[in-house]
Amino acid sequence: MEHFIVSARKYRPQTFKDVVGQQAITNTLLNAIDNNHLAQALLFTGPRGVGKTSCARILAKTINQDGDEHPDEDFAFNIFELDAASNNSVDDIRNLIDQVRIPPQVGKYKVYIIDEVHMLSQAAFNAFLKTLEEPPKHAIFILATTEKHKIIPTILSRCQIFDFKRITVTDAKNHLMRVAEQEGIIADEDALQIIAQKADGAMRDALSIFDRVVSFSGKNLTRQAVTENLNVLDYETYFKATDLILQNNIPQLLIEFNEILAQGFDGHHYIAGLASHFRDLLVCKSPATINLLEVGEQTKAKYLEQSQKAPHDFLIKGIELANDCDLKYKTSRNQRLLVELCLMQLASVLVTPDGEKKNDKPYIIPPSYFKEKGIKAVKISPEVKKQANEKVNETLPIVPEQTIEEEALEIEVPKITEVLPTNKPVVQKIVSENAILSETPATVEKKPIAIHKERKTSGLSLSSIKKKKEHEEKKVDNVVDPKNLPMEKFTESEMQAAWIEYGKMQDKKGERILGSMFAMNIPIMKDEKIHLELPNQSMKVDLENALPGLFQFMYKKLNNYSVELVIIVNEEASKKYAFTPQDKYEKLREKNPLIDKLRSSFDLDI
Predict the structure, then answer these.
(1) CB-based contact 202:49 (threshold 8 Å)
(2) 266 vs 276: CA distance, rounded Å
(3) pLDDT digits over 502-552, tens only?
(4) Kind and range of the H or E element at 517?
(5) In whole angstroms, what is the distance from residue 157 CA to residue 154 CA?
(6) Which residues, at least 6 apart from 580, have a Cβ–Cβ distance to it below 8 Å?
């Protein structure tokens, strides 16, 4: 029986051209070798399985070649690999330093590859500093690590750092296709795509998964076999779920989710995958972002087809709901119910309360209205709509164009002052002349008839200012005389009772700070006006924000619409408030000096 070699070792890169997804680094190293510009210490850092150790071995082999050697010469006598995870002491580094002094017997350079260099102890790092900075001419150090942040800065400053990136899904898929071709394996593109995505940027992981799936399915590698062996949900699951959501088929959607759970999949994984599926559909909406979709050509066609069915607003809302469910999943006590509730909400995004689709707009009135009346709904053709719009436009008055500057001259801006509201409210009744509709005849023809209306003007538009001026000239008799408003006299106690009652109302509403302010600061009557003294400016600001509601309450409670409030800020007034226990004790002692004797007699503390 022939010995089996895993693909990660069998297809390990032997030259820089074989390295996958690290074109910038390999070109830099080749140029450095050609120009004799290679540093004495190199640091290769990056995620696992992206080619750090492979590049170190290729570099060590390449710098010792002068063209006369056999192509398979590996210069094993010149390359020394040290695992820093198991050789991390000071003694190990001292042994390494002693070996560095000896020149190479074959070739030009001795290359020391220290893998997982971040595992060295602090003392070993310090012992290595001098040799790393000034090694012999024949020595080159290549350090490799996945955790650069654990290496001390003095080591980093002595190395030329190369950051290896994660291998893209496309590059990993293409490399797996070459491996499958050399192994004589028929593999679907979607199957290799799933393996590349599962590897998460690590080529070694991708090859290990490839070997596992080949052992499961044999020489024919299908998408179904990959998803079954890797226990992942494929694209078809999410395509089917999205179709059910767009159809508002909640019962079947819940049945599908139950079947997924029965197969052993996690609900958290399912809802996270659904959010990613909505993101991919959103990416397909724009030609500028379609390249962000990392799938095969056949699957991309399916995404494009389904993205035409899903509205843009639905996809945005769907991503929001699915992401919210993803965040709440771990803290939920009933995780299945949480996912099912999210699916029902997703299926209800495009549905109105009466059960009709929100994006289904061929009717002016929903079909449910006609069904109840027993009338068959009639669709309106685009030609009829166009004719009706033209007739409506003919009846609208033509308003001469004016610039914004010209119309802005007619706007009267009211002056805003900091004076408290003392003006008496004026109640006026305005009859709008713009809301009159022309009467329509009792009998209408079968042709579409436009309803003639006088053009309405928005209260916020500039064109409404002229209408308002004309209206102000006409409305004279509809103003209520402010003298008719009630102005009954009230006493100071009645005013204070109303003040305290309003404060309690605010406290019940949850406005604790405002309620306490009304309870602690009681106004007095002076010159038929309400005078209030506050200890600081911030209280005044809070009270001024609450004045509209306060005045409305006081008007009705005191039956007087001429209530005036004068607010005075007195910093000295803050001294009368007792905030600390010591302040409270001093207040009590002012009222009753015997309390001091009580304290001293019983030796009490505050």
Answers:
(1) yes
(2) 16
(3) 888 888 888 888 888 888 888 888 878 888 888 888 888 888 888 888 888
(4) helix 512-520
(5) 5
(6) none
